[in-house]
Design a protein that fits this description.
There is one protein chain. The protein has 15 helices and 13 strands. It is an alpha/beta fold. The chain folds into two domains: about 70 residues, 5' to 3' exonuclease, C-terminal subdomain (DNA polymerase, domain 1), CATH 1.10.150.20; about 240 residues, Rossmann fold (3-Layer(aba) Sandwich). The strands form three sheets. The protein has a nine-stranded mixed sheet, sandwiched between helices. The chain has a two-stranded antiparallel sheet with strand order 1-2. The longest helix has 21 residues. It is globular and about 65 Å long. It starts with a helix and ends with a strand. Bound molecules: adenosine-5'-triphosphate (ATP) and magnesium ion. The site of magnesium ion (MG) has 5 residues, from helix 8. Adenosine-5'-triphosphate (ATP) binds next to helix 8 and strand 12.
Protein backbone atom coordinates (compact mmCIF):
# COMPACT_ATOMS: atom_id res chain seq x y z
CA UNK A 1 0.00 0.00 0.00
CA UNK A 2 1.55 3.25 -1.08
CA UNK A 3 0.68 6.24 1.06
CA UNK A 4 -0.31 9.41 -0.72
CA UNK A 5 1.80 12.49 -0.11
CA UNK A 6 -1.13 14.35 1.44
CA UNK A 7 -1.42 11.68 4.12
CA UNK A 8 2.21 12.22 5.00
CA UNK A 9 1.75 15.97 5.40
CA UNK A 10 -1.35 15.36 7.46
CA UNK A 11 0.58 13.11 9.77
CA UNK A 12 3.33 15.67 10.02
CA UNK A 13 0.85 18.10 11.47
CA UNK A 14 0.15 15.56 14.19
CA UNK A 15 3.87 15.45 14.89
CA UNK A 16 4.09 11.86 13.62
CA UNK A 17 6.80 10.80 11.23
CA UNK A 18 6.58 8.48 8.26
CA UNK A 19 9.13 5.89 7.19
CA UNK A 20 10.25 8.17 4.31
CA UNK A 21 11.48 10.61 6.96
CA UNK A 22 14.15 8.17 8.11
CA UNK A 23 17.69 8.80 6.83
CA UNK A 24 18.47 6.79 3.68
CA UNK A 25 14.84 5.86 3.04
CA UNK A 26 13.71 7.28 -0.29
CA UNK A 27 10.36 6.56 -1.93
CA UNK A 28 11.61 3.36 -3.60
CA UNK A 29 13.11 1.97 -0.42
CA UNK A 30 9.96 2.96 1.44
CA UNK A 31 7.84 0.98 -1.03
CA UNK A 32 10.06 -2.06 -0.62
CA UNK A 33 9.88 -1.78 3.14
CA UNK A 34 6.09 -1.45 3.05
CA UNK A 35 5.82 -4.46 0.76
CA UNK A 36 7.84 -6.43 3.29
CA UNK A 37 5.43 -5.39 6.03
CA UNK A 38 7.52 -2.59 7.55
CA UNK A 39 5.03 0.21 7.23
CA UNK A 40 5.41 1.92 10.57
CA UNK A 41 8.29 3.50 12.48
CA UNK A 42 7.67 0.96 15.22
CA UNK A 43 7.98 -2.05 12.91
CA UNK A 44 11.33 -0.73 11.68
CA UNK A 45 12.57 0.09 15.16
CA UNK A 46 12.07 -3.46 16.37
CA UNK A 47 12.95 -5.47 13.24
CA UNK A 48 16.12 -7.55 12.97
CA UNK A 49 18.61 -5.31 11.11
CA UNK A 50 19.63 -8.08 8.70
CA UNK A 51 16.01 -8.55 7.69
CA UNK A 52 15.54 -4.83 7.10
CA UNK A 53 18.51 -4.58 4.78
CA UNK A 54 17.58 -7.80 3.02
CA UNK A 55 14.03 -6.74 2.27
CA UNK A 56 14.83 -3.13 1.32
CA UNK A 57 18.13 -3.53 -0.51
CA UNK A 58 19.75 -1.03 1.90
CA UNK A 59 23.28 -1.78 3.04
CA UNK A 60 23.62 -3.05 6.60
CA UNK A 61 25.13 0.30 7.62
CA UNK A 62 22.21 2.31 6.15
CA UNK A 63 19.69 -0.05 7.68
CA UNK A 64 21.31 0.40 11.09
CA UNK A 65 21.25 4.17 10.68
CA UNK A 66 17.58 4.21 9.69
CA UNK A 67 16.81 1.95 12.58
CA UNK A 68 18.57 4.12 15.14
CA UNK A 69 16.61 7.11 13.85
CA UNK A 70 13.39 5.11 14.12
CA UNK A 71 14.19 4.16 17.69
CA UNK A 72 15.02 7.74 18.63
CA UNK A 73 11.84 8.99 17.00
CA UNK A 74 9.58 6.94 19.12
CA UNK A 75 8.66 6.42 22.62
CA UNK A 76 10.02 2.90 22.97
CA UNK A 77 8.65 0.09 24.94
CA UNK A 78 6.99 0.86 28.21
CA UNK A 79 3.28 1.36 28.52
CA UNK A 80 1.31 1.45 31.72
CA UNK A 81 -0.71 -1.44 33.08
CA UNK A 82 -3.82 0.65 32.48
CA UNK A 83 -2.97 1.00 28.79
CA UNK A 84 -2.32 -2.72 28.62
CA UNK A 85 -5.77 -3.39 30.05
CA UNK A 86 -7.20 -1.23 27.26
CA UNK A 87 -5.25 -3.13 24.62
CA UNK A 88 -6.29 -6.49 26.02
CA UNK A 89 -9.93 -5.37 25.93
CA UNK A 90 -9.75 -5.63 22.14
CA UNK A 91 -8.90 -9.37 22.33
CA UNK A 92 -11.62 -11.56 20.88
CA UNK A 93 -12.20 -15.29 21.14
CA UNK A 94 -13.55 -17.92 18.78
CA UNK A 95 -15.06 -21.23 19.74
CA UNK A 96 -13.41 -24.60 19.11
CA UNK A 97 -16.81 -26.23 18.70
CA UNK A 98 -16.71 -27.83 22.16
CA UNK A 99 -17.73 -25.97 25.31
CA UNK A 100 -15.31 -27.96 27.45
CA UNK A 101 -12.47 -27.21 25.08
CA UNK A 102 -13.35 -23.50 25.08
CA UNK A 103 -13.41 -23.59 28.87
CA UNK A 104 -9.91 -25.04 28.96
CA UNK A 105 -8.73 -22.05 26.91
CA UNK A 106 -10.57 -19.46 28.98
CA UNK A 107 -13.34 -19.02 26.41
CA UNK A 108 -11.82 -20.09 23.10
CA UNK A 109 -8.91 -19.30 20.80
CA UNK A 110 -7.64 -15.75 21.43
CA UNK A 111 -6.67 -13.05 18.97
CA UNK A 112 -3.27 -11.35 19.45
CA UNK A 113 -1.87 -14.72 20.52
CA UNK A 114 -0.28 -17.81 19.05
CA UNK A 115 -2.03 -21.06 19.93
CA UNK A 116 -0.18 -24.27 19.18
CA UNK A 117 -1.57 -27.80 19.18
CA UNK A 118 0.90 -30.65 19.23
CA UNK A 119 0.36 -34.38 19.37
CA UNK A 120 0.75 -37.64 17.53
CA UNK A 121 -0.75 -38.44 14.12
CA UNK A 122 -4.50 -38.67 14.19
CA UNK A 123 -4.77 -36.80 17.48
CA UNK A 124 -6.98 -34.12 15.90
CA UNK A 125 -4.64 -31.18 15.14
CA UNK A 126 -5.80 -30.80 11.54
CA UNK A 127 -9.43 -31.46 12.46
CA UNK A 128 -9.25 -28.55 14.89
CA UNK A 129 -7.62 -26.43 12.16
CA UNK A 130 -10.51 -27.05 9.76
CA UNK A 131 -13.04 -26.54 12.54
CA UNK A 132 -11.56 -23.12 13.40
CA UNK A 133 -11.62 -22.17 9.73
CA UNK A 134 -15.39 -22.49 10.08
CA UNK A 135 -16.02 -21.10 13.56
CA UNK A 136 -13.95 -17.96 12.87
CA UNK A 137 -16.60 -17.00 10.33
CA UNK A 138 -19.58 -17.48 12.61
CA UNK A 139 -21.41 -14.42 13.89
CA UNK A 140 -20.18 -13.20 17.27
CA UNK A 141 -23.33 -14.41 19.00
CA UNK A 142 -22.44 -17.96 17.91
CA UNK A 143 -18.87 -17.76 19.16
CA UNK A 144 -17.18 -16.53 15.98
CA UNK A 145 -15.46 -13.36 14.83
CA UNK A 146 -17.33 -13.03 11.51
CA UNK A 147 -13.95 -12.75 9.79
CA UNK A 148 -12.01 -14.58 7.03
CA UNK A 149 -9.24 -17.17 7.23
CA UNK A 150 -5.80 -17.72 5.73
CA UNK A 151 -4.88 -21.38 5.74
CA UNK A 152 -1.24 -22.28 5.07
CA UNK A 153 -1.16 -25.98 4.28
CA UNK A 154 2.27 -27.62 4.29
CA UNK A 155 1.18 -31.27 4.29
CA UNK A 156 -1.65 -31.18 1.77
CA UNK A 157 -4.19 -32.16 4.40
CA UNK A 158 -6.76 -29.40 3.93
CA UNK A 159 -9.91 -31.07 2.61
CA UNK A 160 -12.81 -28.96 1.31
CA UNK A 161 -14.98 -32.11 1.47
CA UNK A 162 -14.41 -32.28 5.21
CA UNK A 163 -15.31 -28.60 5.59
CA UNK A 164 -18.47 -29.29 3.60
CA UNK A 165 -19.36 -32.22 5.86
CA UNK A 166 -18.83 -30.16 9.03
CA UNK A 167 -20.94 -27.33 7.59
CA UNK A 168 -23.80 -29.53 6.46
CA UNK A 169 -24.09 -31.28 9.81
CA UNK A 170 -24.09 -27.86 11.50
CA UNK A 171 -26.66 -26.29 9.22
CA UNK A 172 -24.16 -23.91 7.61
CA UNK A 173 -23.77 -23.10 3.92
CA UNK A 174 -20.54 -24.84 2.82
CA UNK A 175 -20.14 -22.76 -0.36
CA UNK A 176 -20.24 -19.54 1.59
CA UNK A 177 -17.87 -20.86 4.23
CA UNK A 178 -15.36 -22.20 1.69
CA UNK A 179 -15.36 -18.90 -0.18
CA UNK A 180 -13.99 -17.16 2.92
CA UNK A 181 -11.11 -19.59 3.52
CA UNK A 182 -8.02 -18.73 1.50
CA UNK A 183 -5.81 -21.77 1.25
CA UNK A 184 -2.18 -21.69 0.16
CA UNK A 185 -0.10 -24.79 -0.20
CA UNK A 186 3.52 -24.19 0.92
CA UNK A 187 6.19 -26.31 -0.75
CA UNK A 188 9.31 -25.18 1.09
CA UNK A 189 9.98 -23.46 4.39
CA UNK A 190 10.99 -20.29 2.53
CA UNK A 191 7.70 -20.41 0.66
CA UNK A 192 5.88 -20.87 3.96
CA UNK A 193 7.64 -17.78 5.38
CA UNK A 194 6.94 -15.77 2.26
CA UNK A 195 3.22 -16.51 2.55
CA UNK A 196 3.15 -14.92 5.99
CA UNK A 197 5.05 -11.91 4.65
CA UNK A 198 2.20 -11.52 2.13
CA UNK A 199 -0.50 -11.27 4.75
CA UNK A 200 -0.38 -7.48 4.84
CA UNK A 201 -0.88 -7.41 1.10
CA UNK A 202 -3.89 -9.69 1.31
CA UNK A 203 -5.39 -7.45 3.97
CA UNK A 204 -4.47 -4.06 2.54
CA UNK A 205 -4.67 -4.66 -1.21
CA UNK A 206 -7.46 -7.21 -1.37
CA UNK A 207 -9.36 -5.74 1.55
CA UNK A 208 -9.79 -9.09 3.30
CA UNK A 209 -10.70 -8.99 6.96
CA UNK A 210 -8.53 -11.84 8.24
CA UNK A 211 -9.36 -13.05 11.75
CA UNK A 212 -7.28 -16.22 11.80
CA UNK A 213 -4.07 -17.52 10.25
CA UNK A 214 -3.58 -21.27 10.34
CA UNK A 215 -0.28 -23.02 9.68
CA UNK A 216 -0.78 -26.80 9.42
CA UNK A 217 1.85 -27.91 10.12
CA UNK A 218 4.44 -25.43 11.30
CA UNK A 219 7.49 -27.67 11.45
CA UNK A 220 7.16 -30.34 8.76
CA UNK A 221 9.05 -28.45 6.02
CA UNK A 222 11.63 -27.02 8.41
CA UNK A 223 12.13 -30.45 9.83
CA UNK A 224 12.74 -32.19 6.51
CA UNK A 225 14.88 -29.42 5.01
CA UNK A 226 17.13 -28.98 8.02
CA UNK A 227 17.63 -32.57 8.99
CA UNK A 228 21.34 -32.67 9.81
CA UNK A 229 22.63 -31.68 13.22
CA UNK A 230 24.86 -28.96 11.78
CA UNK A 231 21.85 -27.14 10.28
CA UNK A 232 19.89 -26.78 13.49
CA UNK A 233 21.10 -23.25 14.26
CA UNK A 234 20.05 -21.98 10.83
CA UNK A 235 16.70 -23.70 11.16
CA UNK A 236 16.02 -22.13 14.53
CA UNK A 237 17.03 -18.69 13.27
CA UNK A 238 14.57 -18.95 10.41
CA UNK A 239 11.87 -20.36 12.62
CA UNK A 240 12.38 -17.46 14.99
CA UNK A 241 11.88 -14.99 12.16
CA UNK A 242 8.79 -16.84 10.96
CA UNK A 243 7.23 -16.82 14.42
CA UNK A 244 8.00 -13.12 14.84
CA UNK A 245 6.24 -12.32 11.57
CA UNK A 246 3.24 -14.31 12.71
CA UNK A 247 3.13 -12.55 16.08
CA UNK A 248 3.49 -9.19 14.36
CA UNK A 249 0.45 -9.97 12.20
CA UNK A 250 -1.50 -11.09 15.26
CA UNK A 251 -0.81 -7.81 17.09
CA UNK A 252 -1.18 -5.54 14.12
CA UNK A 253 -4.49 -6.93 12.85
CA UNK A 254 -5.90 -8.26 16.11
CA UNK A 255 -6.09 -11.76 14.65
CA UNK A 256 -5.54 -15.27 16.00
CA UNK A 257 -2.76 -17.67 15.00
CA UNK A 258 -3.30 -21.42 15.16
CA UNK A 259 -0.29 -23.68 14.56
CA UNK A 260 -0.08 -27.44 14.53
CA UNK A 261 3.07 -29.23 15.52
CA UNK A 262 4.45 -32.72 15.60
CA UNK A 263 5.98 -34.59 18.50
CA UNK A 264 9.17 -36.50 18.87
CA UNK A 265 9.62 -39.35 21.24
CA UNK A 266 11.87 -38.52 24.11
CA UNK A 267 13.61 -41.69 25.26
CA UNK A 268 14.96 -39.87 28.32
CA UNK A 269 11.50 -39.88 29.89
CA UNK A 270 10.68 -43.17 31.62
CA UNK A 271 7.64 -42.04 33.56
CA UNK A 272 4.81 -39.83 32.37
CA UNK A 273 4.52 -38.86 28.75
CA UNK A 274 7.43 -39.79 26.53
CA UNK A 275 6.62 -37.33 23.75
CA UNK A 276 7.39 -33.67 23.42
CA UNK A 277 6.75 -30.96 20.84
CA UNK A 278 9.46 -30.28 18.30
CA UNK A 279 10.72 -26.77 17.59
CA UNK A 280 12.68 -26.27 20.77
CA UNK A 281 12.68 -23.28 23.09
CA UNK A 282 12.09 -20.81 20.29
CA UNK A 283 8.64 -22.23 19.61
CA UNK A 284 8.01 -22.92 23.28
CA UNK A 285 8.42 -19.24 24.06
CA UNK A 286 6.61 -17.95 20.99
CA UNK A 287 3.32 -19.76 21.49
CA UNK A 288 1.27 -18.37 24.34
CA UNK A 289 -1.13 -21.31 24.44
CA UNK A 290 0.24 -24.82 24.00
CA UNK A 291 -2.22 -27.67 23.79
CA UNK A 292 -1.20 -31.30 23.87
CA UNK A 293 -3.69 -33.54 22.04
CA UNK A 294 -3.84 -37.29 22.37
CA UNK A 295 -6.12 -40.19 21.62
CA UNK A 296 -8.20 -41.42 24.53
CA UNK A 297 -10.48 -44.38 25.10
CA UNK A 298 -13.23 -45.33 22.62
CA UNK A 299 -12.29 -42.81 19.95
CA UNK A 300 -12.33 -39.88 22.37
CA UNK A 301 -9.61 -37.23 22.37
CA UNK A 302 -7.88 -35.58 25.30
CA UNK A 303 -6.71 -31.96 25.20
CA UNK A 304 -4.28 -30.75 27.82
CA UNK A 305 -3.32 -27.13 28.24
CA UNK A 306 0.38 -27.31 29.04
CA UNK A 307 1.31 -23.66 28.84
CA UNK A 308 -0.59 -20.41 29.12
CA UNK A 309 0.30 -16.93 30.38
CA UNK A 310 -2.58 -16.82 32.85
CA UNK A 311 -4.64 -20.03 32.84
CA UNK A 312 -4.08 -23.09 35.02
CA UNK A 313 -2.97 -26.34 33.42
CA UNK A 314 -5.92 -28.58 32.78
CA UNK A 315 -7.32 -31.42 30.76
CA UNK A 316 -10.62 -32.01 29.00
CA UNK A 317 -12.13 -34.68 26.77
CA UNK A 318 -13.67 -34.01 23.38
CA UNK A 319 -14.85 -35.93 20.37
CA UNK A 320 -14.18 -35.82 16.66
CA UNK A 321 -17.38 -36.50 14.76
CA UNK A 322 -18.84 -35.63 11.36
CA UNK A 323 -19.60 -32.21 12.93
CA UNK A 324 -15.89 -31.66 13.55
CA UNK A 325 -14.76 -30.91 17.09
CA UNK A 326 -17.62 -31.91 19.31
CA UNK A 327 -18.59 -32.46 22.94
CA UNK A 328 -17.51 -35.78 24.44
N1 LIG B 1 -15.35 -37.25 9.00
C1 LIG B 1 -14.87 -37.67 10.17
N2 LIG B 1 -15.68 -38.12 11.13
C2 LIG B 1 -15.20 -38.56 12.29
N3 LIG B 1 -13.90 -38.57 12.62
C3 LIG B 1 -13.05 -38.13 11.71
C4 LIG B 1 -13.47 -37.65 10.44
N4 LIG B 1 -12.40 -37.26 9.75
C5 LIG B 1 -11.35 -37.49 10.53
N5 LIG B 1 -11.72 -38.03 11.71
C6 LIG B 1 -10.84 -38.44 12.82
O1 LIG B 1 -9.73 -37.56 12.87
C7 LIG B 1 -8.52 -38.29 12.80
C8 LIG B 1 -7.50 -37.50 12.02
O2 LIG B 1 -7.19 -36.37 12.77
P1 LIG B 1 -6.22 -35.25 12.23
O3 LIG B 1 -6.16 -35.31 10.75
O4 LIG B 1 -6.64 -33.99 12.84
O5 LIG B 1 -4.83 -35.75 12.81
P2 LIG B 1 -3.54 -34.87 13.03
O6 LIG B 1 -3.41 -34.69 14.49
O7 LIG B 1 -3.58 -33.69 12.16
O8 LIG B 1 -2.43 -35.93 12.54
P3 LIG B 1 -1.13 -35.73 11.65
O9 LIG B 1 0.01 -35.59 12.61
O10 LIG B 1 -1.05 -37.01 10.88
O11 LIG B 1 -1.32 -34.55 10.78
C9 LIG B 1 -8.88 -39.57 12.10
O12 LIG B 1 -8.01 -40.59 12.51
C10 LIG B 1 -10.28 -39.82 12.59
O13 LIG B 1 -10.24 -40.45 13.84
MG1 LIG C 1 -2.58 -33.12 10.44
Amino acid sequence: MVKKKEDVTENHEDGEIEIEDLPGVGPMTADKLRDAGYDTIMSIAVAPTSELSESSGMSAASATKAQIAARNAMDMGFITGTELVERRKTIERMTTGSEDFDGLLGGGIETQSITEAFGEFGSGKSQLAMMLAITCQLPKKDGGLNRDILFIDTENTFRPERITQMCETRGLNPKKILSRIMVARAYTSDHQMLLVDKVDEVINKHGKDIGLIIVDSLMSLFRSEYAGRGTLAVRQQKLNRHLHSLQRMADKHNLAIYLTNQVQSNPAVFFGNPTKAIGGHILGHASQFRIYLRKGKAGKRVARLVDSPYLPEGEIIFNITEKGIDEA
